[in-house]
């Protein structure tokens, strides 16, 4: 086989004098090395080579540098808010480049988002596993999965965990929140991706929204956005095996589907079923607060709960089942009180008089005993809090009836018994809450924080009741609400000091320090501290003026009604009729 002939020497470009004279530029071989053409040699002038500035640049695939644009904005620490358009563009380019990085198995892992270091990211991931998952076991991360691996496999879940578990100043968290939601909106609504990563991250953000400055209206938006996305993923429909189980109990959630459509429904993975259960719990809490019905099918929830409990895939599976069972008991109570649009004061109270209250309490006591026996170490206190909170909700109709004698509901001896049972449940709830470590407040999810707010408000109402046979002064000796609220405020102050120390240690991992402005910013517990203080001041003011109206009114309040609210509907403090039992606005918030 003949050898390949060597390529001819590359022809030199015309020199500058020949180009200007538009003359032919030729080079002898012996003069090529010193770049001297024949024309310049004969004319005895300097032969100057051309520069490459005017040449056409070769076509190259530009490496996009927008992968870290969004995180650099977050890490800059600037206090000004960027326009929403820039957030969306950055989120879009970031989402596209994230997918490009994921598609290259040998690509070097980039820096984590939000200006964090990998040591900080791993610390936040460890804190999420050890502290946060305990309070919301529906989204878990494997122990052997590093922060780098999670970022490559589930980029949005990684961002959500960094958002809720990183101890950072308020300004940094607010920017992280905006960028995280913009990233979510781009991937979910613009790119229309269908991946469990987005639903898992959304649940994490919604469950700890109170720690990253997301208000209740936005939590509702996120929850129902998650519901729509779960429908899109198909996990709200029963698989063929699940529909057979449900049809045997005559509660099939796919009764409207044909046999062919049932066969096309795929079997859901355990992670998908866990996400559905977590979404059910969040929607239940929001629905109860807003006097709505939970839109998810209870039959499908039972099947998913049974599948996870029998699989025993993770250590948190038994706890997850008990979480859902307590939420189901709360849903059962709402059904017993009647549909929200047809509720009156007499309807929920009749639920107690007809003996349903005794049966419900017996079932609740049985569930609490099973839950604490199967998991006595890590979740015992939390399940006891759920138990006491549900008891308080059970006897809430008695508080409403006693507080509104003008509604025409005749008092009975049983009413006083219900009021005493409610008082005992409230006192036990506060004892459990105050016996827990103060730093647990930062790790509690939406389930526990909303329960605490409800019990605090209902306790204030119960201790101001003036009903026949009820002794409010004796009740206040049993439960000194001013002292309890003062202890909660003290807990919050300890947590704020603990959080400041954690922020300094977290910044030191990246060789950073907190500025004076960042140290002076409000913590994530600022809103809770304000609500507790306002409730305490309102309660003490009412005790000083016993003859004043016991129920707060929006008149004379510094805050006006919200858009679309009727002021008449805001004068009552009743969780059964509206969401005021969780609402601190009548107290000045």
UniProtKB/TrEMBL annotation:
This is Zn(2)-C6 fungal-type domain-containing protein. Residues 241-252 have a biased composition (Low complexity). Keywords: DNA-binding, Nucleus, Transcription, Transcription regulation. One of its GO terms (molecular function) is transcription cis-regulatory region binding. GO terms for cellular component: nucleus. Residues 52-113, 241-261 are annotated as: Disordered. InterPro entries: prtT, Zn2-C6_fun-type_DNA-bd_sf.
């Amino acid at each position: 086989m003949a050898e390949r002939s060597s390529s001819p020497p590359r022809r030199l470009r015309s020199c500058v004098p020949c180009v200007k004279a538009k003359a032919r530029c030729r080079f002898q071989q012996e003069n090529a090395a010193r770049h001297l053409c024949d024309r310049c040699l004969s004319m005895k002038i300097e032969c100057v080579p051309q520069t490459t500035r005017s040449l056409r640049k070769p076509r190259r695939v530009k490496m996009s540098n927008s992968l870290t644009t969004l995180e650099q904005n977050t890490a800059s620490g600037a206090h000004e808010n960027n326009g929403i358009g820039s957030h969306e563009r950055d989120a879009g380019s970031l989402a596209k480049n994230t997918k490009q990085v994921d598609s290259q198995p040998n690509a070097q892992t980039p820096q984590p988002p939000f200006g964090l270091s990998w040591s900080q990211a791993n610390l936040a991931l460890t804190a999420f596993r050890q502290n946060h998952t305990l309070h919301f076991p529906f989204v878990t991360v494997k122990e052997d999965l590093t922060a780098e691996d999670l970022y490559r496999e589930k980029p949005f879940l990684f961002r959500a965990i960094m958002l809720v578990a990183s101890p950072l100043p308020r300004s940094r968290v607010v920017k992280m929140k905006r960028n995280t939601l913009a990233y979510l909106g781009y991937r979910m609504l613009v790119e229309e991706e269908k991946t469990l990563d987005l639903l898992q991250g959304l649940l994490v953000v919604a469950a700890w929204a109170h720690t990253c400055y997301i208000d209740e209206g936005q939590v509702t938006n996120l929850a129902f956005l998650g519901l729509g996305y779960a429908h899109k993923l198909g996990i709200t429909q029963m698989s063929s095996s699940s529909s057979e189980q449900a049809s045997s109990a005559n509660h099939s959630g796919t009764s409207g589907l044909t046999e062919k459509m049932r066969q096309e429904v795929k079997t859901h993975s355990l992670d998908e079923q866990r996400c559905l259960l977590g979404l059910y719990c969040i929607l239940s809490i929001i629905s109860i607060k807003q006097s709505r019905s939970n839109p998810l099918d209870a039959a499908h929830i039972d099947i998913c709960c049974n599948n996870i409990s029998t699989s025993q895939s993770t250590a948190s599976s038994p706890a997850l089942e008990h979480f859902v069972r307590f939420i189901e008991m709360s849903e059962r109570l709402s059904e017993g009180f009647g549909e929200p649009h047809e509720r009156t004061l007499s309807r929920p109270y009749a639920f107690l008089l007809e003996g349903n209250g005794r049966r419900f309490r017996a079932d609740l006591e049985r569930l609490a005993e099973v839950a604490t026996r199967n998991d006595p170490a890590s979740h015992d206190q939390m399940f006891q809090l759920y138990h006491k909170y549900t008891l308080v909700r059970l006897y809430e109709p008695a508080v409403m009836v006693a507080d509104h004698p003008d509604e025409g509901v005749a008092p009975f001896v049983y009413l006083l018994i219900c009021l005493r049972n409610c008082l005992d449940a409230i006192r036990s709830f506060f004892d459990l809450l105050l016996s827990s470590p103060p730093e647990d407040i930062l790790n509690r999810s939406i389930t526990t924080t909303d329960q605490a707010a409800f019990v605090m408000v209902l306790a204030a109402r119960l201790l101001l009741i003036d009903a026949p046979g009820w002794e409010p002064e004796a009740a206040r000796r049993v439960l000194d609400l001013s002292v309890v609220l003062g202890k909660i405020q003290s807990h919050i102050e300890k947590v704020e000091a603990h959080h400041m120390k954690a922020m300094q240690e977290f910044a030191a991992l990246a060789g950073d320090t907190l500025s004076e402005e960042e140290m002076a910013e409000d913590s994530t517990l600022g809103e809770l501290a304000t609500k507790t203080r306002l409730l305490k001041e309102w309660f003490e003011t009412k005790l000083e003026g016993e003859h004043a109206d016991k129920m707060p009114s929006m008149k004379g309040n510094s805050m006006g009604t919200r858009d679309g609210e009727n002021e008449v509907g805001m004068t009552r403090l009743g969780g059964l009729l509206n969401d005021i039992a969780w609402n601190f606005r009548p107290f000045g918030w």
